[in-house]
UniProtKB/TrEMBL annotation:
Signal peptide, first to last residue: none
Protein name, entry field: Peptidase M3A/M3B catalytic domain-containing protein
Comment on bound cofactor: Binds 1 zinc ion.
UniProt source species: Cirrhinus molitorella
Keyword list, A-Z: Hydrolase, Metal-binding, Metalloprotease, Protease, Zinc
Length: 569
């Protein structure tokens, strides 16, 4: 996803984490000081993460004025004198400037530790999204693009021609070929949709529900999980709805009522306020689609994909359902048999039903029963620092790159790491990326890659260096216990980092196509291909090491893990 998204025995075990055991040492890499970075790195990554709320507001206004001036310039060109230089190139430069300048303003809403900054960033996102609608509805600019296409399309470079065609296609999807009255209604609806969507996400990011459970209510969970939880004065455990708390509990807790409480709470986050937003969005999207000549919002969205329309999607799903239903029914019966046996073993009533809070728990049992995967043992071989070291080394080897951690880097939180990426043959710096891997209050709750600066040509014709951030919510380390990953979290890490590499390795002329700004049908393909490495022995060995003695993962455990890939599929 880019944009869809990760403690030990209290007194008995004494573990000393020697820096020589878990220190990250990248092959062909090193650690460099921010002060000693190449001048290219200093010059090309000017992203600031220390802006005050007032500075965010001021820079937002300046950015809007600057980009509006560029579009005003295009809109004022004599129709008969349009050319690549005074129309398409001006828009391209404006888009590159906008993409490079916007994210220091709207990205902090997802990651800043300061609530005031997050709120200011959210407001900036609203203003910029409102401005996006204004720009997308510039009929004067659209008319000049049409004129350019009629006049000069065949003389353009292939990427320039694609850029021009895309702008015209998006203009028609915004109704710029329709009457002025309809355009104004579309603009109003689009602004409402944008603001409501931002509010919806902000509500989820700021959600901080805590559930309280006794030790008996958490039976089945690993010691590392339970001992990593905060406790109240009366000895109850605090469980949040963050991924590192939610997923392990749903998979491992033996107490159905605990799983039910967690499941209901997780899927009821911001229920009242966000339900009202969803109801408004459904109505607004339907109105917008109708104004644009589509029978539904689904058909409006699907027009830009390979599926083209909802009828094709429905036909595909219907055929898939017919073929998979017999298999699905067999698996359902098997899960029910596991539940019945579990209920008998724990003296619980078996009602012959599978509930939402049962599915993760019994699907996890499938892996244990059919493939004998010992999750408690397996997790000990995936300390986050070891996984990170192995993952970065694998990507370096695969793509011919060298990663260097930047010391004393300018970041938004002291847990963040910044890396410089060089071509291992030429030594050219091709990009930089941030790793923000642990949960904290107000932070984006999933795992995703955020493109922060596009890798495209600037107005001077020189290539701008792409910058991206991977944001995740893996369990925090404690003073006595490292951050240990479940295998599915290793897979998530590998997948999202694939998006980071897509952002950095992309070479395009225009910001419009930089990094993951590709066709919707393709955007997940590189990461889905790359994540296959986490199911192969050699890469798994490179990404694993026991957190205590650095011993390799046993072949027997590795074989069972790899065989379990087909579980619940």
């Amino acid at each position: 996803m880019f944009i869809l998204g990760i403690s030990v025995t209290q007194a008995v075990r004494r573990v000393i984490f020697s820096s020589s055991k878990l220190r990250m040492t990248l092959q062909n890499g090193s650690v460099i000081s921010a002060h000693n970075c190449s001048s290219t790195a200093d010059k090309n990554n000017n992203l600031r993460w220390d802006l005050t709320p007032e500075e965010i507001r001021h820079q937002t206004q300046r950015l809007i004025q600057r980009i509006k001036q560029a579009y005003d310039t295009v809109g004022s060109v004599d129709i008969g004198k349009v050319c690549f230089e005074n129309t398409l190139q001006v828009i391209a430069n404006a888009k590159a400037d906008y993409a490079a300048s916007r994210h220091v303003l709207d990205f902090p809403q997802y990651v800043s530790p300061c609530k005031e900054v997050r709120l200011a960033s959210t407001e900036a996102d609203k203003r910029l999204s409102d401005f996006d609608v204004e720009v997308s509805m510039r009929a004067d600019v659209f008319q000049r693009l049409i004129a350019l296409q009629e006049k000069q399309s065949g003389d353009l470079l292939p990427e320039s021609e694609r850029f021009l065609g895309r702008l015209i296609k998006l203009g028609k999807r915004n109704g710029l070929h329709l009457s002025k009255d309809i355009q104004e209604e579309i603009k109003s609806i689009s602004k409402q949709i944008s603001e409501l969507s931002i509010d919806f996400n902000q509500n989820l990011n700021e959600e901080n529900t805590v559930l309280l459970f006794s030790e008996q209510e958490l039976v089945g969970l690993a010691e590392s999980y339970v001992n990593g939880l905060e406790k109240t004065e009366d000895g109850q455990y605090k469980v949040t709805l963050a991924y590192p708390h939610y997923f392990p509990l749903m998979k491992r807790c033996h107490v159905p009522e605990t799983r039910k409480k967690m499941e209901v709470a997780f899927h009821s986050r911001c229920k009242d306020v966000n339900t009202a937003i969803l109801e408004q969005l459904i109505e607004l999207r339907a109105r917008l689609a109708k104004l644009l000549g589509f029978s539904s919002h689904a058909n409006y969205v699907l027009e830009m994909t390979m599926a083209k329309n909802s009828e094709n999607v429905e036909q595909f799903l219907d055929e898939l359902y017919k073929r998979l239903r017999p298999v699905g029914e067999q698996e359902r019966q098997y899960l029910l048999s596991l539940k019945q046996a579990d209920c008998e073993r724990r003296d619980l009533e078996f009602d012959g039903q599978l509930y939402a809070w049962d599915m993760p728990y019994y699907m996890n049992q499938v892996e244990q029963v059919k493939f004998a995967v010992d999750k408690d043992k397996l997790i000990e071989y995936f300390p986050l620092e070891v996984v990170t070291e192995g993952l970065l080394n694998i990507y370096q080897d695969l793509l011919g790159l060298t990663f260097q951690q930047v010391e004393d880097a300018h970041v938004w939180h002291d847990s963040i790491k910044l890396y410089s990426v060089q071509d291992s043959v030429t030594g050219e710096e091709i990009g930089q990326f941030y790793l923000d891997l642990h949960p904290r209050e107000g932070k984006y709750g999933h795992a995703a890659c955020f493109g922060l600066q596009p890798g495209c040509l600037g107005p001077d014709g020189n290539r701008r260096m792409p910058v991206a951030a991977m944001v995740a919510n893996f369990t925090k380390p404690t003073s006595s216990w490292p951050s240990l990953l479940q295998h599915h979290e290793v897979e998530t890490f590998f997948h999202e980092f694939g998006h980071v590499m897509h952002e950095l390795c992309s070479r395009t002329r225009y910001a419009e196509f930089s990094g993951t700004q590709v066709e919707t049908d393709f955007v997940e393909v590189p990461s889905q291909m790359l994540e296959n490495w986490v199911w192969e022995k050699e890469p798994l060995r490179r990404m694993s090491r026991h957190y205590k003695d650095c011993s390799p993962i046993p072949d027997s455990l590795l074989d069972k893990l790899i065989a379990s890939r087909v579980a619940n599929t």
